[in-house]
Amino acid sequence: AVGRSDVESGLNPGAEQCGGRDGTLLLPEVRRAPQQHGDRLGLFTKPLDRRSRTARSNARYRRLQNLLYNVLERPRTWAFTYHGFVFLLVFGCLVLSVLSTIPEHATLASHCLFILEFVMIVVFGLEFIVRVWAAGCCCRYRGWMGRARFVRKPFCVIDILVLIASVAVIAAGTQQNIFATSALRSLRFLQILRMVRMDRRGGTWKLLGSVVYAHSKELITAWYIGFLVLIFSSFLVYLVEKDSNVQFATYADALWWGTITLTTIGYGDKTPTTWLGRLLSAGFALLGISFFALPAGILGSGFALKVQEQHRQKHFEKRRHPAASLIQAAWRFYSTDGSRTYLGATWRFYESILSPLRKDQGEA
Q1: Secondary structure class of 245 (helix, strand, coil)
Q2: What is the pTM of this model?
């Protein structure tokens, strides 16, 4: 027969060596190292393990990663200060790029632009490195494969292209190579892509895409009817004007005139000269503009409805937690009423277990 002491010794292998037979599960491999002189002691006079220091350093490392990632990718409150500074740099570089094409301001603007480009290369280069490093706080971006996945994001690709173009412009400018500078001058206008990168979370494009998707049927209908009006109006005006007006020598000229007229741009480079052509132009202009203006109205109303829906969602998020707390408090009051014995509150099970323990402690 197996005695109780045998069971206890089976639950606690090596209990004889540990000096106890309390029946608890212990790890025989783990042995406490003797306390060395100079070891730091904890609250209960136990030596602190170096693993705790490593854990604390890792925790600080992760907190720093998370902080920088939130500042760069999900800015809140004070983080907008840095993004505002970056926006001013990008906008100033764009303004100087425009001024460098004007002969009166080309020299001064080019010199200032060269300095600003160098500053932006340093700022954006450091930001890109920090951004790639801080992306490790997300599980899907950890490790080399995760970092490569992060670098393949569209906005990171834009950052790489802009950095390469800026370095090429700076290198050509420092070598005083006039041909290379003129050839790479157009690369300076890649600062337009820097304006795109300001919205890294893509909130603007997501909003536009959701509005277009929600009103896709209305937009397709308006564009289809407008396209039919454009083709028929251009063809009829072409038939009327082709013999007496050299401006409508081909159907392509008539399509160009119809596009400019129905979209209310009106360059005036092509105009009908016959009375029949003018009457047709006036009729189709009044008919076509109504269909060409419909998409603008549809998108405008769609944006208004989407913004209103987002405001309602924000108010709902603010009210959800107080409402949940109120419902929880009301249920606790209802379930703990003594007259409703058929209801069992969830905490009564724990109270039934803790009550005898509290009584024993009181008696002791």
Answers
A1: coil
A2: 0.57
Q: Which residues contact 120 (CB under 8 A, 6 or more apart)?
A: 89, 90, 93, 166
Query: Which of 269, 262, 265, 263 is closest to 245 using CA atoms?
Result: 269
Cα(81)–Cα(138) distance, rounded to whole angstroms? 24
Helix residue spans in 203-293 (DSSP H): 203-214, 216-241, 251-262, 275-292
Q: In this predicted model, what pLDDT tens digit does every residue of 170-209 receive, in sequence order?
A: 776 665 554 445 555 566 666 677 777 677 667 778 888 8
List the structure tokens of 37. 């002189």
Distances 350 to 42, 189, 277, 353, 360 between C-alpha atoms, Å:
33, 69, 91, 5, 16
Q: Residue type at 319?
A: R
Query: Contact 155/128 with Cβ under 8 angstroms?
Result: no
Nearest-angstrom CA–CA distance, 277 and 295: 28
The label of the residue with tokens 């003594």 reads 338
For residue 36, give both structure tokens. Answer: 């060395």
Which conformational region is residue 14 in: left (phi greater than 0), alpha (psi within -120 to 50 degrees), or beta? left
pLDDT in tens, 151-170: 888 888 888 888 887 787 77
* 248-252 contacts at long range (C-beta below 8 A, 24 or more positions apart): 248/272
First to last CA, the chain: 38
Tokens for 130?
């920090």
Give the Cα separation of 128 and 205 in Å (integer).
22
Sequence letter at residue 346: T
